[in-house]
Amino acid sequence: MKMMQFLCPKILIRVMLAACLGMAQMLQAAPFTVSTDGQEVTDEATGLIWKRCPYGTVFKLDACVGVPQYVMWYEALAEAETYSRAQKQLWRVPNVKELATLLDRSLIDRAIDANYFPTTPSAPFWSSTPYTTDAFFGWVVHFFDGSVYYTYLEDLSALRLVRDR
Asked: Which of 9, 47, 134, 155 is deepest in the core (most CB within 10 A)?
C-alpha cells in the first residue's frame, strides 16, 4: 500500500506533464497562410493550396458569401475540371488523405479551423478517392465531427478544391 502512495504522485505528475506538453503543441501556430486576396489558404506542412471557401461561395469581409453547392461525386470531379480550365490553374478534388489534413478534432461542432476556413458547413465534403471495394461508393470527410467514411456516389456532399503549390 505504501508503494502505491509513492507511485501515484509520480504517475500523476507524468500525466499532468504530458497534458501540458500536448497543450503547448496545440497552442503553436497553425501551418496555414492566407493569400493576400483572402481566397486561398496555403498549408505550409503539405504544400497544398486550398480554396478558402466551399465551392459555390467566395470570401468577402471575413466570411464565405453565397450558397455552397452540394453535388454528387461525378459532378464534383466535373466541377473541379471546369473551374480549373476557367481559372487556368490546376484545381482538383482532393484525395481523402489530403482532405483529412484539414480536420481539427479538438473543435466542437465544426472540425475545421474557422479562422482559416470560415463558415464551412458542418457537412460531408467529397474527396476524389473512390471506395475500392465497391465502385458505387466514394470517400468523404465530415466537418461536423471529423469522421471519414465512404458513401454512395449519388449522395450530395459539399466540395472544397485544392491545388499543388
From this structure: 155
